[in-house]
Amino acid sequence: xxxxxxxxxxxxxxxxxxxxxxxxxxxxxxxxxxxxxxxxxxxxxxxxxxxxxxxxxxxxxxxxxxxxxxxxxxxxxxxxxxxxxxxxxxxxxxxxxxxxxxxxxxxxxxxxxxxxxxxxxxxxxxxxxxxxxxxxxxxxxxxxxxxxxxxxxxxxxxxxxxxxxxxxxxx
Length: 171
Prior knowledge:
Blueprint: H1 2-22, E1 29-34, E2 42-47, E3 51-57, E4 66-72, E5 82-86, E6 95-97, E7 106-107, E8 114-116, E9 124-130, E10 139-148, E11 155-159, E12 169-170
Antiparallel strand pairs: 1-2, 2-3, 3-9, 4-5, 4-10, 5-6, 6-7, 8-9, 10-11, 10-12
């Protein structure tokens, strides 16, 4: 009887080993968050082996408008660690190390940092940050602030809310 159990256990172990060997490699997590604001509508965060990519659907976007992204890379610290402000059709962007939402920050040397925002293109603003520039975090979460210059008072739309983050996105 014990011999039959040993054979069954060996067969199960072999099946499990084969399944594990054939399973696809771990992949990046991508999450899309919906914002209840009137202008900023969705934010997609893709956290891959090499980079974090954030795409914000901002609606109609003009030359005087801009979007600020905050990245939280440390679950032990409730605030952001990085910030990037993106102005459409501009090359004056940089990644900043910050200590809070109100911090002006210090520039981070990050060769692979990219941003796109075009008033004549898609109604989205994108940042791409190499993970090596932000300490290769296990997970990230983002906050987005879109500022629109309009007649009358300017419109500010935070996603998901004023100085709040969307959920964590693991790698």
